[in-house]
Amino acid sequence: xxxxxxDVTGGMVTQFNRLNVISNNLANLNTTxxxxxxxxxxxxxxxxxxxxxxxxxxxxxxxxxxxxxSSIDRVPQIVEQYTNFNQGGIKNTGNTFDFALKSKDAFFMxxxxxxxxxxxxGSFVLNNDGILTTKEGYTVIPANYFKNSQFIKIPQNGNxxxxxxxxxxxxxxxxxxxxxxxxxxxxxxxxxGENLFKFPDINKIIPSNKKDIVVQxxxxxSNVNPVSEMVGLIETNRLVEMYQxxxxxxxxxxxxxxxxxxxxxxx
Length: 267
What we know:
Strand content: 25-35%
Oligomer: single chain
Largest sheet: 5 strands, antiparallel
Order of helices and strands: HEHHEEEEEEEEHEEEEEEEEEH
């Protein structure tokens, strides 16, 4: 059995998965408020050491460790994948219904067919009823939504201005306030497509108390660094090529050498 072949195969699969993450980041380089994904590559032995203290047989952990296949101890694996919520840049657009947030843990809340979701993409529009929505048609949640279930309706031909806390005014009259959400458990947020995030517990979502957080007429850019992503892409491609050479050596050179030596042994 060529255990080294399987080690290398595991390493190649890991790099393929890493390549998918990097490619997706680069594909969203110009996506408004996109948050890049990152991976942590570890090995089986590290995973086992982290989990062995939690094994149910307290006195048998050392005995159980004897059955761990040492040949796969160092196979690289993706041990964690997470979203990097670092702040992207702020780009001025001049559009009335474009809003950027000046905090990495602040989000707009929108209502979708699948329930409430969070987003940092503040590129909004008005629907046929004058209601503030995302470009996908999801209704933007106002600060008082959980009290009266009303949405933000913009008066026709009104000059809409937002202050730094997200309150909206039309010709001097307050017409609503954006619900700026935050949470102490941002790590639990999961991407749900269309630059949306779903959250496991609505009770952990609270309104932000920051006064200087909203910038009208601007949008947050993606936090993807194209240079670092390209470096990672090149590194991953080179690792895949190296693993491929090792696999070819195992299947061709080593097998051929073993067959020739076995054939030359006299009975």
